[in-house]
Amino acid sequence: MQLKTALLSTAVVAALVAVSAQVGSGSDPMQSLSRQNPATAPSGAAATDAAAPAIAAAVAPRHSALGAVANAPGARPGSDLAASSESPAQADASPAANRARGLLSGAAAQEVHRVQADAFVARDVMIDRDGTEHVRMERSYQGLPVVGGDFVVHSQNGELKSISQGDNMRTFGRPDIAPKISAAQAKIEAGAAFDGTVNSIDNAGLVVFAQGTQPTLAYQMELMGDRRNDQTPGHIAYFIDANNGKLLHAEDRIQTAAANGTGKTLLVGNVGIVANSVSGGFQLVDPNRGSGSTYDAKGSMSYSTGFPTATLFTDADNTWGSNTTSDRATVAADAHYGVAVTWDYFKNVHGRSGIFNDGKGVRSFVHVGNAYDNAFWYGSQKLMAYGDGSSFLPLVALDVAGHEMTHGVTEATAKLGYYNIKDTGGLNEGISDIFGTLVEFYANNANDAGDYLMGEKLVKNNTTGTKALRVLFKQDADGRSKVCYPSGGFTASQTGQGGTYDPHYTSGVLNRVNYLASEGVVVPSGFSYTKAQLVCNTDTTIVGIGRDKVGAIFYRALTRYFVSSTTYPQARTWTLQAASDLYGSTSNEYKILARAWSAASVN
């Protein structure tokens, strides 16, 4: 099919063609590695020593876009990405995964508290250019998934370097796997816990639940329903103690842009977007970015089935919208543009091809719900949804698109928990704010200049440009968010939706760290805060290292070190490890990041 571009300059078209050709060239190191027979594949130090030069040579053309990060002043040679898996199946079949399992049978067994009936499946593999392997593992016990049992094995030349894991599973204890209550009773308990109308409850089976508690046999119940007084989709996983019916944990599957709502294109003027040429016209499908597509949900909230009545946007002349909401395609153009820029940011800056690193785009749905004041990422259907807003403008801002797609990247990598898990939800939400901000800076669009405000384009009558959903350098300006980490951390029982420690409030700690490390203690133009108000201690002389370096550090920490139950102190440790990987443990980058964490009271 012939590709057409709307309002796209010749220079941009040429750049897209160049990137497409570059990505298609060279060999795929993970494909070639994963095809080896594990029984005959080389192992240990000899395998890594032999493979590393070949990997580096093979991926040099494919990953040349990483040069801006890998060759930044002070970057440690060999720390940039050489190869990465494109699916869990490919990761688990790779020799790197086999080497990691070998280490888990020996040197690492004690550290991860392995018992005889534990088994491990690799979900993701990343290999640095110097041969360092990072293998993300999921654990099972007697065939049952262990929720909270995930970790990352870091090795080089067949030797264990370290293990990244949360505070879970620091025990050799395991539960009896014979349930004492029935699945029917567990289903009743799950239904009773939901505030709204239950549509269905599916039994996902028995698991070993180990998040914030001793490993406990539990039923995992996936509930779908309509929340009370809230259009946000209701999909919650309830973990019910299989011994006594007690609710152990409720995990909300919907990750929204903001707890209290979020607010040619409507928001960024006339921009270039890529569409697909078909017989009789054009479809809002981007073949250059994994065929990501944009649909009209027509007010539907049938998210659980992927909005089956939604229609793909089509057009006769490849001009989409009219800069006004009277044309339904206007906000579709905003969303389509935001997804494209986010794709380009992760691809060109971090070498990641789409949310799942598999080269596939995702579906975006606009006009979701009735005056719905939010946007969300829904991982089960791999889709993004945008409401038309009521208190806010339609929620299709560039940084919101970047924010939501980053939730997908987090789900594909560290799987950071969200509600009801101590600090983790705030880290999850903060990571999305950070990369949503970086996407906005990357776009370099004069109509939506980069800043440290989340969703400022969605606020009505924002003539000063200083109002936003979240002020990321001083998030507590909203009267609810937290910017200084409390002693003992955030209490898990208060981190539910709308709770005192809702992730959208506790993300303020990470957002403060990001701002201080990137920009230093600098009060942005248009705001009258004092320098002392930007820190939790008295360190007002921090000079930032630049957002690109901080972005490189946080991406490395997210994809190589963070796990599902990471706490704020662990995030400090692992982002500093990432800074050491990239720039050295005595570098200015490392020292400034450490000071930024301390300035948010994370020590």
Automatic annotation (TrEMBL):
Region Disordered: start-end pairs: 24-45, 70-98
SUPFAM superfamilies: Metalloproteases ('zincins'), catalytic domain
Start and end residues of each FTP domain: 118-164
Domain of life: Bacteria
Cofactor(s), by name: Zn(2+)
InterPro entries in alphabetical order: FTP_domain, Peptidase_M4, Peptidase_M4/M1_CTD_sf, Peptidase_M4_C_domain, Peptidase_M4_domain, Zinc_Metalloprotease_M4
Recorded coiled-coil stretches: none
Record domain Peptidase M4 C-terminal: where: 422-602
EC numbers: 3.4.24.-
Membrane spanning stretches: none
Localisation: Secreted
Compositionally skewed regions (Polar residues) per UniProt: 24-37
Domain Peptidase M4: 261-411
Keywords: Hydrolase, Metal-binding, Metalloprotease, Protease, Secreted, Signal, Zinc, Zymogen
Signal peptide: 1-23
One Pfam family cited in the UniProt record for this chain: Peptidase_M4
Free-text function comment from the UniProt entry: Extracellular zinc metalloprotease.
Family: Belongs to the peptidase M4 family.
Entry protein name: Neutral metalloproteinase
Organism: Lysobacter gummosus
